[in-house]
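Wed. Picked up where I left off yesterday with Amidophosphoribosyltransferase. The coffee machine is broken again, so keeping this brief.
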Amino acid sequence: MSDEIKVGGQGVKQQAPRLWTGDYYNEGVAAHNGLFDKLGEECGVFGVFGHAEAASLSYYGLHALQHRGQESAGICVAGSGEEFKYHRGMGLVKEVFNNDILGPMTGSTAIGHVRYSTSGESKLANAQPLVFKYREGDLAVATNGNLTNAPQIKKDLEKQGSIFQTTSDTEVVAHLIARSKHDDIVSAVKEALLKVEGAYAFLFMAQDKLIVARDPHGLRPFVAGRLGTAWLFASESCAFDAVGAQYYRDIEPGELLVLDMKTGRVTEDRFSPIKQRAVCAMEYIYFARPDSDIDAVNIHSARKRMGRQLAMESFVDADVVTGVPDSSISAAIGYAEQTGIPYELGLIKNRYTGRTFIQPSQELREQGVKMKLSAVRSIVAGKRVVIIDDSIVRGTTSLRIVNLLREAGAKEVHMRISSPPFANPCFYGIDTPSRTELIAAVKSIEEIRQAINADSLHFLSKEGLLTAIGHTTSDATRGYCTACFDNRYPTPVPDEAALGCGCD
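Structure written out below (tokens, as returned):
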């Protein structure tokens, strides 16, 4: 990256953010076999302020957030005025870090990141936290989400001389910070965030400050916790349980927290007023771990209520209820409790398939669902089975699961989905196919039923979903993004060709 950039076309020279490259190794990435058409995970962030074991806490916190991303992991650590120590790598948290790596990473402040696997570039350059050099010193940034206007901002910056080394939205924000006329990092971050749109949970670490920010709509979840006198920040509250910390509160939409390493002071500020509140509904349906709480709503309990509501909307006489592991188990239990039909483990997940370096042939790929799921023949044979899943994306996985149950002897297979039809792409950090690849966008429910070979098919209504989460029209403090179901996006969105995750 260039050491200088011109500001405003007036020849004023300013230090540009320079990406450190000293940790680039192991460019090889385990190839995913593409067996499932489920939605791509989001990313996860974890931050520590004021704890002597910041690096180790980050390791365990990221491990608890591993479900949000399995492509890469990284941690950056610093003390007040100290040089940053950081490490990033491709793979799971336990594959990227060990005692020899974590040992030298001393400091009381840290930010960490796990990145999900996308259909785009898979390389270490996009692993986070990204670490930059700029005029005020070192700057490390980690984010979960996607900036919908990043492509246009990037084009404008490139016309002004900026050179980008990654395809990450995070680097766009770093350039905006570097180009700010404010020498104060807090003011520069505020100015940068006011120029971007979309969904994000940001952690910025400077030489003597940790800055925490959440988008004005609250699209991405972001929570604060306490461990003794230390402050912790995470994409989900389950990360606090992993390190023995206590949930403190959610970061408010548009809020900016500034934590000073020299004084230990925490300043509550904001860079934007709260806009139309729109927490991502898919967090409750699919992404978040069942033991997490988002906006004081427990995910497992919400999913059970989705199952109960689904049963009230679409009862079918059957012998057994089962769920697609793991995210649909809670809803399946709720459906069974509401109907009185016994819940059984009709499908078993093989937890040791992991990732593979081989690319199976198309023939093997068609049979690949059996690598990860097995039907329990003694449970489903001769039975009328209700199978609960959280969503249908392209429909290929649903077809394989239905056929798997039929091959195991199921007499009838009734598919119930604990969300409305997923018919619109996400622009806020979920890796989704284009609209034409989403089966609910091009087929009716009856056509989908035929395509997946089910005896019956029913989706949870949007009203039922919001009721299950806990939404009431009288509560102005709650609001959810349901654009993937109703095409009502809370922010301006780009052309679909610009789809992608900000981490990619």
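Quick read: The two ends are 18 Å apart (CA to CA).
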